[in-house]
Structures are given as C-alpha cells and as structure tokens.
C-alpha cells in the first residue's frame, strides 16, 4: 500500500496543482484566465479531489498520476458554482465570504470563466499519466456525472422547484443528482484510475451515496443553526428563498439523526478496503462540520 | 480507401447521430434536454463534423467509428452559440431564423443547456469506438481548442473589443481563436482518429487555418451584402454594433480577394492526400456561400 497522507497534505498538493493548471496567457485572454484562477483559488474544503486521491490510494494507485483527475473534478465543481451564482440562476453576490465571480469580473467574463473551467477539466484529465484503458472510463464517468442526466439534471430540477412545495423524496432525488453525482464521480474515478476491482468500485459508490446525502442535509442544517462568520455567507438564505430543505420537511432532530445514520452506512460500506481509517474519519468530519 | 460520401450524405448521418445522442430522461430534467435538442436540431451547415469525417476518411478511418467525435464537435459549436446569444454576451434574439435558446426556454435553462452540450460532447467523444491511444489525443485537442487558450480565449478577446477600434491584425488574432480553433480541431481530430501521419496532420492544420479565416471574412461580407432571408438573421448587425470587420478595415474588394487567396492556399495544402476532391470543393463552396 502507498504512503498515507493527511487531509492537510492532500489539500496542499491539490492547491499547488490547481495553481499550476491555469497558466496566464500574457494577453487579452487573461481577462478570463484571472476570473478562472480567482474562483479556483477561493477554495473550499476540496472534498471531491481529496476523496478521489484517497480512493485511488487505497486501491493501490499513485497520487501523482491521479492528481490531474483530482484537479479536473475540482474545476467542474468550481464552474458549477460560478454558473449557479449568476443572476439568471441563484443570483448570489458572495461565495465563501468573497464576491462571487460575476460580482468581481462581470457577468460575461464569469460565464466564460465557468465554460473555461469545465473545458479545462477535460483537457487536464485527458493528459493524466495513466494507462489509456484506465483513463478513458474516468473521462466518461466525469462527463456523465457532470452532465444533463447528472449534476446539470439536478440543477434543472432545482429550477423547476422554485417557489414550489417539494416533498422529501423529490428533494432527495434532486440532491442525488445536483450534489451527489459529483461526489460519486470523485470516489469512483479514484478507484477506476487505479484499475480497482468491481467490488471496490461498488463500495465506493455506496460510500459516496451516503456521504453525499449527509453532506446536503448538513448544509441545510448549517443554514439554520450555523453562523455567518463560520459559513462565509449569510445564514437563513434557504428560508428566505422558500427553498424546501430537509430540516423544514423532517424537523431538526430527525435531520440530525439521518446524518448520523447515513454516516454509519458510509462507514459500513468501507469494509472491503484494508486501509479505511482516513475515509472513516472523513465521513465523520463531514457530518460534524460547522462550515 | 473507404467509400466516398457526398456532403448531403454526411449531413444526414450527422443529423441522425445528433438526434440519438441526447435522449430524453422522462422527468423534470427534460426542461434542459429539450433545450439542448432544440438548439442542436436548429442545424447549420454542419461544417465542423463534415470536415472531421472527411479528413478521417482520407486518412483511412472508418466513418462509423469517427461519428461520435463529429457529434462532439458540433455539440461544442452549438453550446458556444447558445452562450454567445445570452443577454450578457451578444444578446441575440434569433439564431438561424428561429428564437435563440434563451428566448425560447429562458436564460437559466439556456445557460444549463449550453453547459449540458459542452459536457455531453466529452461523454460522447470518450465512448467513440476507437483505439484508446488514438482517442485520447483527440479528446485533448477538443478540450484545448475549445478552452480558454482557444475558442473561449477568442470570445474573451472579442468582449474586450466592444465599442473599440481594432486593427486587422488583432481582428485576425481574435478570429483565429474564436472561430478558427474549432475548425482546426475538426480537421486535426479527423486525422488523429485515423492514426494519420504527422505530415497529414500538418496539412490538415494548414487547410483549416486558411478556410477558417476565409469563413469569417465571408461571414462579415454577408452581413453587408447578403439578404436577411438567406441568412435567417437581420443584416447590418455588425455595423449596428460597431464591430470591427474585415470589409470595414480592408474594403469589400480586398476582402473578397483575400477570400479567394485563402481558399487557394487551403487547396494547395491538400496535395499530400490522394483523394482531395471533396475537400477542394468544400473550400470553394464555403468561399462562395450566400448564407
């Protein structure tokens, strides 16, 4: 088994790689390059690339070779946030305590920066130093989970639900696509890049499914019980926008219980991996996070 | 050498493949699926996929195996038009005589439809039945030419030039990226998918470079000398928007002469291909088109 890394070590590697992945052009194009770099550097927890790298490691993969794929999935996540924040979508002025991309650079540049990051994700991924027969399925998973049947499908469903009552089942179906699919992609691509066995890929899917939903419920809980300082954005925005949320549909206590249950399910799915302590701790940390 | 096809035969194949490539989901996601299908079906001349398939054929490739790549490049072209038409970009209400995507489906759905087509392009391309060692370079070219150093870079430069005088050199540099890169990708990917020799790839690049610029100059000319009926959009829109164009910078006669010169250069580049009559005719047809 390859060397273990801490979350901090992974994050440092990912941030360094992302910083190198979008070089300036030195000409007028850099209006968009700077916007891409701004949003990419305004980093969150790097949940998806960390999961990708760790699943890759526990399946016997090499972190350096998988790093381009980790960058690619973070680029796709970042592009989706830029486009989600645009006035015609959620119209959010802030992202992680800083002006959102279109507030900083204007709408047209933010639109193109999102397009640029989505496109660059596939450029970076297609050049990962991995066996072509391992790499091509990773690219297909990346495109399928991020696409109109996956993440974009979830965003589309979300649009239909504006100012409309949604039950827990439909909310879950939406979140499974909108946030769940890319988390699933991260875990699955980590395995596929290492040429993992089918059983391992299935276990990664099960883990991802559970932490993906738990992640979303915690997001909803923090919008009620968190603080603006910790979150880097105003709290109460879901209620203000009349958004259906798990706490609103299930209550605070039941939502918290569900997070614990899902986290336990995620941990149970890891039994086929010899080294699973990082992934166990990661699931627990996501469940108990305050931002 | 594989069977020759006519432009009409290629177009029929491409349209049929595109129609199958975006199946409905049968649920709320189809708000975006329908928008994607609408824009993809509102077909233009299919210049890029036809070029891809014919370069593939003259390099010894099989048309069926290359068809997913042809679809992918048309999807990228279509997404770029959807996003270009948005209010924050060119704010165009019509595209090829029909309401543009956001006029028909609303801004948010059009944004997501563009994102969906860009993402689907890579999904479809990654599954092309080609040897992985031929396919991966095709994917890299697709992402690089469409990205922030390529097509998106050109769109970004275009944004900087709004209401600003631009000389012929800068206009050419912009168009080389904005429209030239994807035409170049089409020709180059056609060759790479067939495992073509370097000399053939270089010849395809030279051909693409010349017809790409000629194509843009003809576009500018038609905006002055064409008719709204033939073009499916109002004429005179460049002048109205104070856009720098080749005819404005070089004059009508010099622009027309340049189109002929570039077309001859493109034809000259084809000497290394045994069967080049289709590509010669294609370059001439693009130069003499009326829409």
List the helices and strands and how they pair.
2 copies of one chain form a homodimer.
Chain A: H1 7-21, H2 30-41, H3 47-58, H4 63-85, E1 94-95, E2 98-99, H5 101-105, H6 107-126, H7 132-146, H8 151-160, H9 168-193, H10 198-225, H11 228-231, H12 237-240, H13 246-250, H14 252-268, H15 277-287
Antiparallel strand pairs in A: 1-2
Helix pairs in contact in A: 1-4, 2-6, 3-4, 3-9, 4-6, 4-9, 7-9, 8-9, 9-10, 10-14, 14-15
- Mean pLDDT across the residues of chain A is 94
Q: What is CATH's topology name of chain A?
A: Farnesyl Diphosphate Synthase
Rg over alpha carbons of chain A: 18 Å
What fraction of residues of chain A sit in β-strands?
A: under 5%
Biggest pleated sheet of chain A: 2 strands, antiparallel
How much helix is in the residues of chain A? Answer: over 70%
Per DSSP, the total helix count of chain A is 15
Shape call of chain A = globular
Largest interface, Cβ cutoff 8 Å: A-B, 51 and 51 residues
Looking at how many chains there are and whether they match, the oligomeric state comes to: homodimer
Tell me the count of domains of chain A.
1
CATH architecture term of chain A: Orthogonal Bundle
- CATH homologous superfamily (4th level) name of chain A: Farnesyl Diphosphate Synthase
